[in-house]
Structures are given as structure tokens and as C-alpha cells.
Write a structure and sequence with these properties.
By secondary structure, the chain is an alpha+beta fold. It is about 45% helix and about 15% strand. β14 and β15 form a beta hairpin. The longest helix is centred in the N-terminal third of the chain and has 37 residues.
């Protein structure tokens, strides 16, 4: 009887669990549909931006949402597209790529632990960014933000990433794990509050994407029955859900996705009911996961969304930002209209408009063939001969309006003609051209600032994920100061994202950096006491101009610096003899630099005065060789 009651209890528990799972699935799906419906108008604007970028510029958002094509008023109207939006966006993307920030970490204080942690964190960030192709991800997300206004980064821990370290009992490979950073389009992100201005003001966030059933099977180990996702549903868009006609996207009609299903992830920040937050993953009618947020990736050990938001031009009281394409669309419409009307007028002037007396000629033949050179026009005897109407010259207003609209493209976008490889005719001095370049840089400063903030936040997420999952011993290969590959073992506990300060390098274009170096060279700042450029500065100067490999092939200074650095590590443990072929001047500088550095002071404190004595003897030997 006891076992029968236990079986009955298990059955009841199973039914209760199924009821809760069904209710959760229904709640998540209903919440997703409600958020998608609330965001319908915004998505129509994004799709309109994509159409204008691709060249489909005779469409607009209908009063019911969705896009509709604009018809010609007359059959003879010209409907050519003179796309200025695409090169403008390409110019902005190119400038933003040149001004892309690079992460580095500054110590929170002068304590040795903070200095060591900052140095390790900087190395980890450089190592991770190279392995996961971070630059490509940033470029993709920046493209989304420039077109739609907002883009997102999803920062998670991939258990199957990194190197293979072992093999499980079942024969499956075991990997060390790696951070995964992917660019997410705004179409896939659904906040609970469209008036929130940042992720910190959002209570719940949904990430919805269309995936194949094979992906679900591999990722979650669950088999689901796929279906055909039609049109925009295949991208989690909301347009065709209301039965609207398919729209153009980058010149192509949205396609269907076979054997797929919507993967819906709903993230909820920690509350009193759920102190560790909540994550619910739904595919079709199945609940794949429900539990706390997976990562401790917030301040002070809290759990937050694994997303980073990047904006182009922020709007007050709006979660999704505006883009430069939004501002350019009215100018582009006016420009197309002016150019087409101008061409229509030119066609009338060049081909002419005939006036004929009724019944005097065969109008059908004349309409079909026109007035070809050498054509014989036969008209009724006594009638009036056909004549061309005098249409006059092309009005000057067309050219004036066209010129003003071209200037307005630069005014609205913040990208001048100079950035598009077209030197202004009125500007001839080098100072004027430099001022124009500086003006372009300043007009992009807000967008660059948002990019800077997003990259800095990604760095925080990366270090916190490494601290949580990297383990006690982690192998990392990185390039040292002398371009030599170094192997490091570190403990994830040494990465303290709360005791270090994230910053990015000064965001300037390569041209500005080279111009600054040339000015410093002219001022003599890079020269030694004899007024000549030192060999060390010469190497660094050529590296800044992209000729580092050439200099290293011609000059052995870099090799002497690398040898002296290796000797510094060896001198901590044993005495090192001075070689006759050493560049003694370079070695003295490098050994002295180590003695005065924090690393050298720590070595003296740890191993005693014997280390300091070895360095003194070694430096004396180099100086003695110099006097011979």
C-alpha cells in the first residue's frame, strides 16, 4: 500500500509539473506576442531604413503598419533612384572602424595586488578579443546600430569553446570553455518597457530568434517538431503576422524558413521572489529551461542580463535609438524628386513636344516613331504643319535645389564631402582641410562615445565570466612588449572586475596619430641629447607608420632589446655573462629600466639583496665594455 501511494503521488506530481510548464509556456508566448505587437511601428521604420539603404526608395509605412509601394501618378514619370544614403552610411562605418576603441585596464590603486590584477585583466582582454574575432563582431553590431539605431551584444560562456583538454568517460571531448560575444539585431530584442532608456531600467527582456530543429537538438538535447516560418516570422519580425503583403528587404522578398521553430528566451532581473533572477526558454509548446539567470555578471556579484546595448543617436524616453538613415530619408526623397523632375524636363527639351492640328497627320504613326532624323512628315493639304512647342531652358531652381540638398546630406549625416574623397572646391589651404577633418571627428563623437561605453561594458562581462568559469589554472598565450609570444598560467580568482577600472585608449584616427608624431618629431621631442632620433624611438616611429617589420629586418636593435629582457628574467635566479656582440648601450638601458620598475622592486623584496647585486655587477660589465 505504501508503494501504491508513492506511485500515486509521483503521478500527481508529474501532472502538476506538466500543468505548471504548460502555464509557463503560454505565459511566455503571450508575453512575446504582446511585446511584438507593441513594437510593430518601430519595426516598420527599421525595415524602411533597410529598403532606402538598398535602393528601394519608393515605399513608405502604411497607416496600418507594414510597408507599401508608392505608385506612379502618371505612366511617363521617371522613378530613378539616386542613392546618397548608402555611401553616407559606408563613410560613417569606415570612420567608426578607424576610431574603434581598444580595451585596457587601469589599476584601481597603487597596491601590488591591484597592479597585478590590472595587468592580468588587460592581457586576458587582448587574448580573448583576438580569439573570438571581436573586431568583426563590433563591425557587425555597428552596422545594425547605424541603420536601425540600436544594436546588442550577447555575452555568454560557451562550454564547447576553447581548447580540448580531456575526453569524458563516454568518449565525448571536453573543452576548457570560452567567452562568446555575438552581435544581435534589434529585431530580436523585446523589452517590457519601450520607454526605458537603458538596460538597467528594464525589468524583463525577451530574445526571440528563429532556429532550426537541428540547432535545438544539438544545443538543448530536445527534439521538437519543426514548421515553416513564413516571411518575417523567420526573423522574429512582426509585419506579416497581421496578414500584410510581403515587403522588400535589401531588394529581396523575405523568404521562408523550413523545419524551424521560434526560440524564445525571457530574462527577468532579480526580485524579492526570485533573488537570482529568472530565465525561461521556450521552443514551440515546450519549456526547455526555467531557473535563475545563468551568470554572475553584474556589479557586486549580482546577476543581470547577458546583453550590452549600443546606440547610434539616443532619444529621450525611448529604449531604441534613432539612426542617421531616419534623418536622411526626407532629404533622399526630395533629392530623388528634384533629379527626376529635372531629367523629365531635359527629355521634353531634347525630344520635343509636338503640336498638331486635329486630322492633319497620322497621329498614331507620329506617336510611335516620333521625329526621326530625315523623317518625311505628310500632313493634310491646307492643314497646319506640326510644330515643336518652345519649352524654354531648364529652370535654374532645379540646379540650386539639387546643390542645396547635396549640402544637406552632409549637414544631416555629419559626414562631409571631404570624408567621401571629394575635396571642397572653396577650401585650398592645408589648415582648412585639417579643420574640416577635425569637424567630422567631433560630429561623430557622440556615436563614438556610445560605442566606447558598449565596448567597455563588454570587457566587464568578459572578465566576470572568466572569473566565474575559467577555473583554477588557465593557459593563455599573448604577445609581449617585444613581439615575443609568452605563455601564462593564471588563476581565475585573480581577475577582480570590481577592483579595477576599465578604460579605452584615446579614440583618434590613424591619420591624427601620425600627424601628432610628425609634429613631435619636428619639435625634437623624440630626439636624444645629441639632437638625433634614438634607435629605440626610430623603431617605434616606423611601427606607428606600419613599417615595423621593415625596420626589424634592417636594424637589430629590437633583437638586442628582446635579449636584454630575457636576461632580466634570468638574472633574478642566476648570474648571466656579458656577450661580446651585445649592444651594451641598449642592454644598460633595459636592465636599468627593469631595476627601477615595480617588477624589479618586487623581485628584490622577494629574493633579497643578492638579486640586486647581480644586476649591479651585470650593468657594470656592460658599462666597462662601453669604455674599451
Amino acid at each position: 500500500m505504501f508503494f501504491e501511494d508513492e506511485n500515486e503521488l509521483d503521478e500527481q506530481t508529474k501532472k502538476e509539473r506538466e500543468r505548471i510548464e504548460k502555464a509557463t509556456v503560454e505565459n511566455v508566448r503571450a508575453d512575446f506576442e504582446a511585446r511584438r505587437e507593441a513594437r510593430r511601428r518601430l519595426e516598420s521604420g527599421w525595415v524602411l531604413n533597410m529598403n532606402f539603404l538598398s535602393g528601394n526608395q519608393y515605399c513608405d509605412v502604411s497607416p496600418f503598419g507594414g510597408l507599401e509601394q508608392e505608385d506612379k501618378t502618371f505612366f511617363w514619370q521617371s522613378r530613378r533612384v539616386f542613392n546618397h544614403i548608402a555611401p553616407t552610411v559606408e563613410s560613417r562605418l569606415s570612420k567608426l572602424a578607424q576610431m574603434r576603441p581598444h580595451l585596457k585596464v587601469r589599476a584601481f590603486s597603487d597596491e601590488s595586488s591591484d597592479v597585478k590584477s590590472a595587468k592580468l585583466a588587460t592581457g586576458v582582454l587582448s587574448y580573448v578579443q583576438e580569439r573570438i574575432a571581436m573586431d568583426e563582431t563590433i563591425a557587425k553590431a555597428t552596422m545594425w546600430s547605424e541603420i536601425c539605431g540600436t544594436a546588442f551584444y550577447k555575452v555568454v560562456w560557451d562550454e564547447k569553446g576553447g581548447r580540448q583538454v580531456a575526453v569524458s568517460n563516454s568518449g565525448e571531448p571536453v573543452y576548457e570553455g570560452e567567452v562568446s560575444v555575438t552581435a544581435v539585431s534589434p529585431f530580436e530584442i523585446f523589452p517590457d518597457n519601450l520607454a526605458a532608456e537603458d538596460l538597467q531600467s528594464v525589468q524583463s527582456l525577451i530574445h526571440a530568434q528563429a532556429v532550426s530543429v537541428d540547432y535545438i537538438k544539438e544545443k538543448f538535447g530536445v527534439t521538437v517538431e519543426g514548421r515553416t516560418l513564413e516571411g518575417a516570422d523567420a526573423k522574429a519580425y512582426s509585419e506579416p503576422s497581421a496578414g500584410k503583403m510581403p515587403y522588400e528587404w535589401f531588394g529581396k522578398t523575405t523568404s521562408n524558413m523550413e523545419n524551424a521553430e521560434m526560440l524564445i528566451e525571457r530574462y527577468t532581473i532579480p526580485t524579492s521572489e526570485y533573488p537570482e533572477g529568472r530565465l525561461e526558454i521556450v521552443v514551440g509548446n515546450k519549456l526547455l529551461y526555467t531557473g535563475p539567470l545563468p551568470y554572475v555578471n553584474g556589479e557586486k556579484g549580482t546577476r543581470v542580463f547577458p546583453f550590452v546595448k549600443q546606440d547610434s543617436m539616443r532619444l529621450p524616453g525611448a529604449f531604441f535609438a534613432s539612426s542617421v538613415v531616419d534623418r536622411l530619408i526626407p532629404v533622399q526623397r526630395a533629392y530623388n524628386a528634384v533629379r527626376n523632375r529635372k531629367h523629365e524636363f531635359l527629355n521634353r527639351v531634347s525630344m520635343g513636344v509636338l503640336a498638331v492640328e486635329d486630322g492633319s497627320v497620322d497621329t498614331d504613326e507620329l506617336a510611335e516613331d516620333g521625329l526621326a532624323p530625315g523623317k518625311v512628315v505628310v500632313y493634310r493639304q491646307g492643314g497646319k504643319a506640326p510644330e515643336l512647342l518652345n519649352l524654354g531652358d531648364v529652370p535654374s531652381e532645379f540646379s540650386a535645389e539639387e546643390e542645396w540638398l547635396e549640402k544637406e546630406f552632409a549637414l544631416v549625416s555629419g559626414v562631409s564631402d571631404l570624408s567621401q574623397s571629394s575635396t571642397p572646391v572653396r577650401v585650398t589651404s592645408a589648415t582648412g582641410l585639417q579643420l574640416l577633418l577635425a569637424q567630422d571627428e567631433s560630429r561623430l563623437s557622440m556615436t563614438v562615445g556610445h560605442l566606447n561605453s558598449a565596448v567597455r561594458e563588454i570587457g566587464r562581462h568578459i572578465l566576470r565570466l572568466y572569473r566565474e568559469f575559467a577555473g583554477d589554472t588557465r593557459l593563455m598565450t599573448m604577445t609581449g612588449e617585444n613581439k615575443k609570444v609568452q605563455v601564462h598560467y593564471f588563476n581565475a580568482g585573480d581577475l577582480s572586475a570590481s577592483d579595477i577600472v576599465f578604460e579605452t585608449e584615446e579614440i583618434t584616427s590613424p591619420q591624427m596619430k601620425r600627424e601628432t608624431l610628425l609634429k613631435l618629431l619636428e619639435a625634437g621631442v623624440l630626439c636624444g641629447e645629441d639632437g638625433k632620433v634614438t634607435k629605440e624611438n626610430k623603431v617605434r616611429f616606423l611601427e606607428a607608420f606600419g613599417f615595423g617589420s621593415y625596420e626589424n629586418a634592417q636594424d637589430i636593435t629590437a633583437l638586442h632589446v628582446a635579449k636584454a629582457t630575457e636576461e632580466n628574467l634570468s638574472l633574478v635566479e642566476k648570474q648571466v655573462e656579458v656577450d661580446e656582440y651585445d649592444s651594451h648601450e641598449t642592454h644598460v638601458l633595459e636592465h636599468t629600466r627593469f631595476v627601477l620598475s615595480e617588477e624589479g622592486k618586487k623581485a628584490f623584496e622577494k629574493y633579497g639583496t643578492s638579486v640586486k647585486d647581480r644586476f649591479n655587477e651585470h650593468i657594470k660589465a656592460h658599462k666597462s665594455a662601453l669604455t674599451k
